[in-house]
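Priority: medium. Attachment 1 of 2:
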């Protein structure tokens, strides 16, 4: 699946000022690769992936998955598409309090009407939560919640995975575990986009970008005043 963002801008007014959180960003992460986006807090990294994941409508521009224009789809179509094709690891806690670890991981597959119990068992093992499969979210640490979110994002074998600070709250061992798991998804053909301040992620990246002032730069050319353009021809 090809994904591309074209001239994404998001702006808001503050008194007499017009502030651009994203400034005409065009970006096309490749399938089969890990793309890392780094940069200062507030530079627009999370805003960009939220738009690309279909969670936040831009002021201008469009996101495409193959030939589907994301922000021309209705809410029902977009929700169903996201559930089956996009995995998202959010920055904050997102587990449902009324469900245990196993149920939370299975939730996207339940919504899709498929039985992924065997896959969930493998993912629970992969993120080291076997002994906590029946634990409720209030029994989990921040790091355990992060690993639960990673497993849930992968349950439907999505074509595109967005990970927002996926190694937050994790020690070095578990951070490496999650990064290796995301790298494996890319090696199986997924486009993996990681937003992070963690330089350890660079070792797993095929491409690294820097977000600065709402614009996206190649890391190798971070001092050049040129926007990154789509990677597809």
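Attachment 2 of 2:
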């Amino acid at each position: 699946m090809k994904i591309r963002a074209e001239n994404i801008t998001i702006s808001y007014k503050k008194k007499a000022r017009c502030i651009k959180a994203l400034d005409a960003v065009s970006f096309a992460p490749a399938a089969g690769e890990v793309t890392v986006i780094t940069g200062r807090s507030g530079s627009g990294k999370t805003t960009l992936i939220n738009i690309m994941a279909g969670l936040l409508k831009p002021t201008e521009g469009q996101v495409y998955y193959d030939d589907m224009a994301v922000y021309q789809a209705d809410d029902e179509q977009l929700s169903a598409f996201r559930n089956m094709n996009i995995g998202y690891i959010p920055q904050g806690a997102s587990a449902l309090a009324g469900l245990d670890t196993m149920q939370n991981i299975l939730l996207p597959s339940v919504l899709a009407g498929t039985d992924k119990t065997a896959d969930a068992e493998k993912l629970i093992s992969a993120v080291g939560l076997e002994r906590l499969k029946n634990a409720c979210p209030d029994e989990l640490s921040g790091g355990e919640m992060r690993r639960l979110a990673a497993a849930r994002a992968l349950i439907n074998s999505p074509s595109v995975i967005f990970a927002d600070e996926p190694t937050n709250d994790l020690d070095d061992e578990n951070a490496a575990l999650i990064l290796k798991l995301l790298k494996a998804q890319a090696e199986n053909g997924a486009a993996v986009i990681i937003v992070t301040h963690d330089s350890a992620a660079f070792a797993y990246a095929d491409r690294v970008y820097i977000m600065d002032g709402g614009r996206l730069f190649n890391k190798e050319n971070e001092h050049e005043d040129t926007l990154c353009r789509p990677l597809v021809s």
